[in-house]
Specification:
The complex is a heterodimer. Chain A is mostly helical. Chain A folds into two domains: about 100 residues, Rna Polymerase Sigma Factor, Chain: A; about 80 residues, Arc Repressor Mutant, subunit A (Orthogonal Bundle), CATH 1.10.10.10. In chain A, about 75% of the residues lie in helices and about 0% in strands. Chain A has ten helices and no strands. Chain A is globular and about 55 Å long. Chain A starts with a helix and ends with a helix. In chain B, about 40% of the residues are buried. Chain B has one domain. The C terminus of chain B is likely disordered. Classes of the chains: A mainly alpha, B mainly alpha. Chains A and B meet through helix 2, helix 3, helix 4, helix 7 and helix 9 of A and helix 1, helix 2 and helix 10 of B.
Amino acid sequence: MHPDSNLEILMTRYQEGDFVAATVLVGRLSPQLHRFFVGQVVSRGDADDLLQETWLRIHKVRHTYRAGEPVLPWFYAIARHVRVDHYRRAGRTTAREQRLEEMPEVAAAMPGESGRTANLEELLAPLPESQREVIQMLKVAGMSLEEVARATSSSVGSVKQKAHRAYEKLRERMGGMELRKGSSGGPS
Amino acid sequence: MRDREIDEVLEKAAQPPHEVAPALLERVVGSIKSSMQPVRPLLPTWVLAGGLVLIGSAVALAGAARAGFYGIEKLSVLERAFIFPTLGILIWVAAAEFVSEMIPGSRRRMGPVALLTLGSLVLLGVFAVLFRAYPTDHFVSAGIKCLVTGVLHAIPVALLSWLLLRRGFAVNPVAAGLVGGTLAGLAGVTVLELHCANFQALHVLLWHTAVVPVSGVAGALVAWALRFWAGAGAHTSRPPNNP
């Protein structure tokens, strides 16, 4: 059985008023939604707030999910909306964009840089937000290109393009790190 | 570095489980528990889109009945056979896209701007092929009258469409406003084709077609303004942070 079909059944039961199904859904999906917010370079406290707000919104509009449709794009579309709404309301978008532009040199810790495996958030930090969210949905949530396109209200072609550009950037940075490691490891 | 190697790095980085504080999960569950009750899912897309097409057709027919069916009476059979099925198809496509905009995670066959552009270009193409009388009389005065008539009829279509889809949830209200406005504008053009007997090419090409972009942009602006005010209200009414 496809893992998502379980979620679809749980979602249908949630719509029918089954509190246990709702609790299981909250437990199953909260970590990846929380990670989605943390990955968008917000503080953990902000991510907590956004997660709570997302579930409230999900609860309010749960009737808009239709049985048989993929469930993850529905959840992520709402999570994206909450995130955008949060930044707009807080009026921090501009400041945040400036912070992001400054980030690549500071936050981009690559694997092996400090003798440990980089976490996903550090790896993806240098990417623009639109590319980062696509990689998160593909690699963390395990969504298909079609599902990511649904969640981001875009076309499959656009998702492919963003993923391709993200990989190009990651390749560039990882290649740079390997080169630096190679040159520093040589005889002095 | 190959894509597969990048995949491996990303997968390894994504492996460690991401923990969420149990207290937060309890808060989330607690917040939805009090209002846990069965909800009725939205109707299928084709039913809602069909409802929107009915609204558009009903308003167009009512508007033309009130103003007079002078246009359709003067149109040849060939012109009728081109114009009205084209409008019907465009209204159906716009209706389906509007429904998709109101349901999170729906498949989008076309972006809002692409829909507006396509709708306007198709109408321009059809009108350019069918109407070849290039002299113009009262170009601006007659044109503005038609534009206003079309947009005025688009308003009830937009309001009734919103009423039909009010249980939906637009994750991008501005995009939804643009699509809703485009749909309403197409219904406005239908009123003009039924009513207006001025077949001068430039009049039809410019003033009739303009109803679609004008309504679309107006829909987007209204949605933007509503979101802005709703956001401002939410911002000012937010409780202060805990000390």
